[in-house]
Structure formats: structure tokens, C-alpha cells
Specification:
The protein is α/β, with parallel strands linked by helices. Helix content is 32%, strand content 21%. The protein contains 15 helices and 22 strands. The strands form 5 sheets. It has a 9-stranded mixed β-sheet with strand order 2-1-3-4-11-10-9-6-7. The longest helix is centred in the middle third of the chain and has 29 residues, at 301-329. It is globular.
Length: 550
Amino acid sequence: MTNSLPNQSVDSGPVLVVDFGAQYAQLIARRVREAHIYSEIVPHSWSAERILAKRPSAIILSGGPASVFEPGAPRLEPALLEAGVPVLGICYGFQAMAYALGGDVDRGSKGEYGSTSAAVGLAEGLLAASPADQTVWMSHGVAVARPPDGFDVLAATGGSPVAAFQDRARRLYGVQWHPEVRHTPLGQAALENFLYREAGLEPNWTPGSIVAEQVAAIRRQVGSARVICGLSGGVDSSVAAALVQRAVGDQLTCVFVDHGLLREGEREQVERDFVAVTGARLVVRDASAAFLRALAGVSDPESKRKIIGREFIRAFEAAAVEAAAGREGGDGGREGGDGGRAGGGRAGGGPTGDVRFLVQGTLYPDVVESGGGDGAATIKSHHNVGGLPDDLRFELVEPLRALFKDEVRAVGSELGLPDSMVWRQPFPGPGLGIRIVGEVTESRLATVRRADGIVREELTRAGLDREIWQCPVVLLADVRSVGVQGDGRTYGHPVVLRPVSSEDAMTADFSRIDYGLLSAIAGRITGEVAGVNRVVLDITSKPPGTIEWE
């Protein structure tokens, strides 16, 4: 897979966020990127030597759930602080820095949680231009009581006599609070002070630089080989395909697999719009019968995801043979199929003809939730990360693997993709298969597909397409409830509306939708969709709930 990631310049490496187990590590990286400076996350288990080998332009130490006093708590190697690289410690990272350099960390101090007032005594360096008092977001049970020698105390709170410090000569800085969260209104200003003023970095990581870097990386990886892209019509796969198309032109064949788990009108939109915008060659395969056979009798969500991932790859392999044969035959047109392996066989030398590479629109949140990275917990296997079969016959090209969704949208706009693609509601690769709680059947798909279509129509009519990040419609297929329709008793299924607002899908909050609109949606669904007699609203944030139910 492509692992060449953008840097600030030829001379400087990324800003590294050392993850001490924080729930906000990804958010820190995002805030650095919002300052137009590239960042990566590395685990705390890496040695100082390994971290410094990446030639970081700056290092940020994240928070974490541990206490520096606990046995087995993550330790900070002094070598990381002695290398001359600017370092910012946040929360646990702040305490770990103080502890490693001989400061006093008070295990008996009172904790601080939530919104807190910080008194700024020295508004320079990290806190340059800060007012004398600012609101910060705290989450800690111990505090730094005395800074290491050579450090200036910048701020204090009721529970933290040393709430921020710096040693500008050694380019070391720290805050007890969380500058990365929106509940610290001046947090981004402090981060930018660290990045621009203290580390001397230039804000030159932009959508244009991402495109240039990834186009070059794709060309290096692919060379003159043929490439196949699994296209869904969503923003992720569309942007990934457009990037590869720009890099290698007609070496790319895009394959749209209709797995029968699509929303209303999606296949037609891809066939009609995508080629017109990108000029890419498109092969369409109808594999819906094969997917439904494979999913028959399966209700477990992890099993469904893995089955869908496996069937995708098998459909791609068959399409690759067809694409190779079609290219040699010179027809260049669309091809259909029933999802089975194409007859005839093997153009080139391998089981997939001369197509060596598979493009996927994998994003950074997919990797994180699938257990990517050292010590990360698997929340759910994404079909293009944890759901791929072990005997995968392609080498992967994943040009978006390091990006969050909002960054992908910016890259899509940079590539000239229309708003109808760039701002389309995200849709999971496993499609409606994971929006049916229970076994996936043709009739259940028809039910949730129509309900979803109604919701999207109403949200578009209300002008909410950019305000609401995503609104999954979930069919509780294994649940029935009593209702009354047409003066008669019904025993139908409930559907769940899950409207959420988010920046990148790492965190999300439920969208506050006007009750009149909700009433109209519920009325249409119960009136137009057979077998549904109840509509409920999911108002859970993420965390604790994921955006998709499965």
C-alpha cells in the first residue's frame, strides 16, 4: 500500500503525536492539520530512537488514562527531550515531561474535570497574546506542583499550581489542559503558537500539496502496471479513483460492484456521472445474487462485514480478468456479469490477469476503528481493512489512508469533482447490509432502501445536506412492535433514524432536527413503506455509540 505521506518540506518531517492512550490523540493530529501542518500519530511504545528516526519537525505528547506513579505507566525517555526537537506535552504528556526532568508531580492534589478557569501569569511563548484569564478543559487527577529546573510557569488553576510551563532555551513546553478540544476556546491559538512561533514551522500542507505528494507516490508504487479500483460512488472511493486517474491515466480501470446493498439510484448515478467527470474506464458488475447467497442466515455484524469484504475481493478478481481481456480486445466498454468468475481466463501471468494493484478509499478513521496502530482496540472491522481475505491477490493502493473525511472532501474539490460527489452523505462499504439488524434478505433490503430514500429526499428538501453529516436509517428486522394502521392492528418493524453531525467521524453528536421535519419523515415512512409501523430517533453521541449500528 502507499505509505508515502506528505511532509512540510523536503527538509522537515511530520509533527509526531505520541499517543499515551488518549481518547483525543487523533483530535490533536487533526488540530495540527487544521494549522496546515502535516501530523502523524505514533504509539508511546516506540523508543526515542525510533521516533527521532522519522526526523520530526516537532513532537506532541498526548494525554492518557494512566498516572506517572502507577506501575507500568508509560514512561518518557529523556533522550526524546534532549534531541533539540520542539516538544509540547498535554495533560499526561505534560506530567510525564515534568516527571522525567525532575519536577514534582503531586499525587495528592485534587483533580479537575471539565471547564476550568486558568490564570495566565506569563503571556509569552506558548501563551503569547493570551488574556490574563482563559477558560480551559481539564481532565486530570494529579498535578504538577513544581516545574523542572529552567522552566517558567505560565499559568495556574485552583487545582494545578503549575498548569502550563515552558523552557524556550530547550524548546520544551507543556499544558495541563486539553488545547485540542473546542471547550478550550483559545486552545488552537496555543497550538499554533507552538507550531509557528516556537517550532518555526510554515503552514504549507494544503489540499494542493496532498494531491501532488500522492500523485507522485502512486506513480512510484504502480510504475507501468495496471490498476483496478473498487468504486462505490461515495466520496472516498471517488476521490481515491480521481487521484489514481491523475497519476496513471488509462492504466486504471474502475469497477463498480453492485452488491445489492445499495441505496436508491446509486448504481445509475455512478454509471451516469462518474465517467463524465473523470474520464475513467468503468466496468460494472452485478453481483447481488452472490452477495445475498453468502449472507443468507447470517445475523452477526462482524460476520456480515467479513463476508461482504470477502465477496468484494472475489468480485474484483473476476472483474480484473474481464478488464484485462477487455483491454486486450480493445472494446473499452462497460461489462456486466452475474458475480461469478469470468470464463477464459488469464491475460498476463497471474490469477487476475496483468492487474497487480487494487485501489481502496480507506480513511484514517477506518484504520483506527479496525485496530490499526500499536495497542489499538478493534471497535469493528471495516470491510476494506479488517475484512479483507488472507489470500488477497492484489497489492493495495490506499492514497487516502492518512486522511480524515473533511480532508478527503478538500482533496476532491482540488481535483475538480463536483459538489454532488464531494458532499454526498458517507455510506459504508458494506452498504445496507449493516443497516439491517438481523439477517439480510431481499425484502428487508427493499424496506430499508425505500425508508432511506424518503429520509434523504426530505433532508435535501429542507436544505440540510451540508449541515447533517450522515443519517443512517436502520431497520430492526428482528424486532416487531404493535401498531394501528387503517383502523387495524399491525405487527410491524421499527426503523431508527440516526442523524449525526461530525467533522471526521472520529467523534459525532446527534443532529437537532426540527420536530416538524421529523414528523413529516415519520409520516411518510409509516405511510409509504410496507411493514414499518414505528419510527424512532437515536440521540446517542459518539462515543459511546458508533455512527453505524453494526
